[in-house]
Amino acid sequence: MSVPSCVSPLSAAGDGGRFGGKAAQLAAARGAGLPVPDGWALGWDEVEALVRRDRHGPEVEAALRAAVAGCGPVAVRSSAVGEDSHDASFAGAHLTVLGLVGGDAVVHGVREVHASAVHPGALAYRDRLAVDGAIRMGVVVQEMVDADVAGVLFTRNPLTGADELVIEASWGLGEAVVSGLVTPDHIRASPDGRILESVIGEKDVAIRLTCDGLARETAVPPDLAGMPCLRDEQVQQLHGLVRACNEVYADTAHDIEFAFVGDSLYLLQRRPITHG
Length: 276
Fold this sequence. Notes:
single chain, 276 residues, D-amino Acid Aminotransferase, Chain A, domain 1, 2 domains, ATP binding, transferase, pyruvate, PPDK_AMP/ATP-bd, kinase activity
């Protein structure tokens, strides 16, 4: 489907000064053939026009509605200028809205993400890191992956700084991991992918997509909650994804969000590891 000019395909959103850090990182990954779900990006100026309903706002809103028409559920993710950078990740500071279906829901999601830039937590983060300048919030609209297993991967131990892979994963969508809803499985692996440690977490809740596309908390059966959610073969697939990211990004210290649907691995987000 053709995409109106004021809504860009995610693969064309490589200008971080316009589309923000998250969009630029994902555009690089898609351009290199990494398994990134398809989607679109709005530059910060288009987001401002839509939210403020200025003279270009109706055009942007109409283009966004046309882009998502007929699509399944999408996620609307923040992509502020400077976000997911070497100096400031803004991880958890801005909003992600999951499981949106239809133009009304997506437009509302964009407005919610834009508003999250001035939430007290986000402003405190900017103050703590002395991030100057106007807040410029781009947005990524990305097809949802109905994950069986999802989580995060660091290529350097975030606690010790050790040169090793640290993987945290749970059943369902990765939001259960990043929001702290569960104690995820914890895996440490050497840089060559050899598993060093595997600790099973308490994964009694999962976030899954319902038949109407909404993201909802569901109980995990007790026998499944205590089982490892990643097989050794999937850990090796993640190691392969790390090697692929090493070929794309100059900084090989990766903070990755991933999802598995069966044995198919998806890269949902990549940022450099930061201390902020």
